[in-house]
Write a structure and sequence with these properties.
Elements: E1 2-3, E2 13-14, H1 27-41, E3 48-52, H2 58-65, E4 70-74, H3 78-91, E5 96-98, H4 102-106, E6 116-121, H5 129-140, E7 144-155, E8 167-175, E9 178-185
Parallel strand pairs: 3-4, 3-6, 4-5, 6-7
Antiparallel strand pairs: 1-2, 7-9, 8-9
Length: 194
Amino acid sequence: MTRIIGGSAGGRRLRTPPGEGTRPTSDRVREALFSAVQAWAGTWEGLRVLDLYAGSGALGLEAWSRGAEAVTLVEHERRAIAVIELNARDLGAPVDLRARAVDAVLATPPAAQERYDLVLMDPPYPLGEEELAEVLASLAAGWLAPDALVVVERGSRSPEPRWPALVEAWRSRRYGETTLWYGRAAASPPPEEV
C-alpha cells in the first residue's frame, strides 16, 4: 500500500500501476527524502516541483500535499498515467500531468519564471547511466531555477549519477536496496541563448 505521508492529504492511500513496470518508492525512503527536502528548503510554499518518471505520482502528490506551489508529473506508460489521473482526482490535486516520454518533455525548456526548484527522479532501474546523464544534462539546460535541488533514486548497486557541469553532487543516502543521490544547481542558471 502506498500512501501520502504528510501534509494536507497525509494518510490518504494511493493507487499504484499494475504489473512490474513501476516500483513505488517505499514509505521509509519517501519520508527520508521529504525530510531532507524540508531541511533544505525550510518551507514548501512557493516551490515548483518536477516529478520525472512519475509512476503512481506518489512523489509529486506528496509534494503537493505538503504545500508545493506547482507540481508537474511526467510519465509515458499508459497504465501509470491512468493511475496518476485517478490519484490526483481523488486528492483534488491540481497537478500538471505530461503524458509523454521524459526526453520529449525536456526537449523544450520552460520560460525562466517557470523553472523548477525541486526535481524528483525515480527512473526505472534498467535505465542506463548514459541515458540518465543525458536527462540530467537536459535539466541543467534550462529547467532548473537557481539553487534547485535534484534528487535521483537509484538501486544501491548503481554508480553515482554523472552530474552535469551546472549541478554539483551534494550528498547521498542509502536505504537498503535504494540510494537517494542529491545534486544542487548553480546559483545562477545558464544565460538564455539568443
